[in-house]
Amino acid sequence: xxxxxxxxxxxxxxxxxxxxxxxxxxxxxxxxxxxxxxxxxxxxxxxxxxxxxxxxxxxxxxxxxxxxxxxxxxxxxxxxxxxxxxxxxxxxxxxxxxxxxxxxxxxxxxxxxxxxxxxxxxxxxxxxxxxxxxxxxxxxxxxxxxxxxxxxxxxxxxxxxxxxxxxxxxxxxxxxxxxxxxxxxxxxxxxxxxxxxxxxxxxxxxxxxxxxxxxxxxxxxxxxxxxxxxxxxxxxxxxxxxxxxxxxxxxxxxxxxxxxxxxxxxxxxxxxxxxxxxxxxxxxxxxxxxxxxxxxxxxxxxxxxxxxxxxxxxxxxxxxxxxxxxxxxxxxxxxxxxxxxxxxxxxxxxxxxxxxxxxxxxxxxxxxxxxxx
Length: 373
What we know:
11 helices; 10% strand; elongated
């Protein structure tokens, strides 16, 4: 994760910084105590001083609780000694920086509004102007630093993903070259062995041995390269999921339910196994459709219909979500699924329904096309 350069220095000087923060909090506690005693609010020292000094020590790690504690301290100071309200207002300058840098935008804006609101409601007009001029630049600089950090993190993540994709593309090309070379050798040796098997059985045996050696070597190299294409290092390759597997389908529906969308499943006709490629494609269509429901539909339920016909499997995923009441625009996921369905001779449609919601309708032929095998 990206951090400003001074954060790296802070990591190496962490013990010194801890003591510096403690010293600052202690000094401010002494200052606040003197101010309150001069204002004749000796009994308020026990309550007001901790509410004003503690946030200095915890602001970086807990900016929002620190701000809340300060607001309470300001209210107490105003109640017991109105002229000593600066006891709570001064630490706000320190708290607003970490609040704008570490918290989400909504919390950062709310914190700034709360600080300015307290200043203008409880302070004098002249003092309110001074504190506003002090608060706003500190908050703005910290918020700009946060935007820069978030933008840099996004760029770094995109760069890492692009590098990973390029690396996998290179591996895929190497895998293609290895398989193509191995199959070429095997084809040539098999053809030669078929020609000499009657007249020269020794040569035919040598050709078979060459086929076995080449096949084993190719399989080993394929396994190594496929291992590099795994998404999680150290995790064994899992079996290819399929829609006709009850375990795979149940797991997918359970994951969707855990994400907040309950799926009503309806199966028409006699369920049957599909060819490996078509079965994986059907599973991916359902998976991508349900993922889009979770992300974009703002719906609590969805319907999945699997219609096993004599000539095709028809998959329909619908939801009543208000988030889909927009002009139809397929994302990369659904576009990829459409191309995949076409590869197996099928069709796929996706778009909003007239009465609201969204539907994905895919049709996969019962027999896998020969050119797709």
